[in-house]
Amino acid sequence: MNLAAGIDVGGTKCLGVVIDDQGLVVREVRKPTPTADQLVETLAAIVGELGEHATIGLGVPGLISREGVIRSSPNMSTAIEFPVREKLAQALGEPVWCDNDATCAALAEWQRGAGVGSRDMWMVTLGTGIGGGLVSGGALQHGAHGHAGEVGHMVVQADGDDCPCGQRGCWERYASGAGLSQLAGGITGEEVISRARSGDVAALEVLNEYCTWVALGLANIANMSDPDTIVVGGGVMENADMLLPLIDQRFATMLYAPSHRVHPVLKSAQLGERAGAIGAALLHLHD
Ligand SMILES: [Zn+2]
Questions:
Q1: Model's pTM, two decimal places?
Q2: pLDDT class of 280 with cuts at 50, 70, 90
Q3: 224-210-279-95 Cα dihedral, nearest 10 degrees
Q4: 160 CA to middle of ligand 1, Å?
Q5: How far is CA 286 from CA 64, 80, 95, 104, 280, in A?
Q6: HSE-up (13 A, CA, CB side) for residue 261
Q7: What is the CA(121)–ligand 1 centre distance, in A?
Q8: Residues 241 and 281 in one domain
Q9: If we measure between CA atoms, which residue out of 264, 281, 231 comes closest to residue 109?
Q10: 202 touches 214 (CB < 8 A)
């Protein structure tokens, strides 16, 4: 049996897994995400605790070059031009595969989750921000410099809300989990959804507005690249039973020439918080 290890470097925690040939998680290790100067040490410790493995992959948020250099990362402001792949490989004495965390999540959902069987797929994660990754023509896409799929910073409102990235009106200001909370005047997304479930009219209005923002971005993505499937994940999609039909309803009217085309299927992600780590473990098969 081939055991593959993968680590997802998240905003607050690093999640490491070892998967078997079927993609099932056989071991798991979690540690708090350290500052950039402690990153390699922490990752090496996780690999040590994960134990036996044939390959090791790493998913990192932000702009990661194809060579595994962190150009800039939202959660580690001091990680600029940081060659994490090379440093970890040196520390471990074995090769390391490395990619953007959302690209890893897309790979996992495509190979082992909601996107199995798709040839042209997007995975969009609605979390604190919005991550994106894509498969085109049956192959995972990286872009010329490793930065494909940064849909969270697609501008949907010129002169809109300030985004930490320095631009204004980015899609993630409105359609992320944090965007839902902001639309609701500061209460948590979970609270809005719970109020909407109990029939609160104001909460339902907020949810309708939120789903319209989500659908707007998904329609832009679909118009641009014509996928057969869009997998939607992230914390808010734990309420996919309520949100996905609302999103789908709007998405179907926002597509270009909606009555003359096959619509991409919107699916709820299946792998949850482990998607990034599982995808990192699969990177060695899709470099
Ligand atoms: Zn932005």
A1: 0.95
A2: very high
A3: 80
A4: 11
A5: 16, 26, 15, 10, 10
A6: 16
A7: 23
A8: no
A9: 231
A10: no
113 assigned to some structural domain: no
Pairing outcome for strands 55-60 and 4-9: parallel
Contact present, 108 and 278 (Cβ < 8 Å): yes
Amino acid identity, residue 145?
Answer: H
Q: Is 168 helix (H, G, I), strand (E, B) or coil?
A: strand
To the nearest whole percent, how much of the chain has pLDDT over 90? 87
| β-strand partners of 17 | 6, 28
Q: What spacing in Å lies between the alpha carbon of 26 and ligand 1's midpoint?
A: 37
* Residue range 230-247: mean pLDDT, rounded: 95
Report the alpha-carbon distance of residue 104 to residue 98 in Å, rounded. Answer: 9
Q: How far is the CA of 150 from the centre of ligand 1 (A)?
A: 9
Rounded Cα–Cα distance for residues 202 and 183 (Å): 11
Residues 6 or more apart whose Cβ sits within 8 Å of residue 117: none
Residues 71 and 177 in one domain: no
Ligand 1: distance of its center to the CA of 129 in Å?
9
Give the chain's domain count.
Answer: 2
- Per-residue pLDDT of 130-156, as tens digits, reads 999 999 999 999 999 999 999 999 999
Range of the domain at 180: 119-269
Distance CA 143, CA 140 (A): 10
Going by pLDDT thresholds of 50, 70 and 90, the confidence category of residue 14 is very high
Query: Which pLDDT score is estimated for 156?
Result: 97
Residues with Cβ–ion distance below 5 A, ligand 1: 153, 163, 165, 167, 170
CA of 45 from ligand 1 middle (Å) equals 33
Distance CA 245, CA 256 (A): 19
Pair 199, 215 in one domain: yes
**222 vs 52: CA distance, rounded Å:** 41
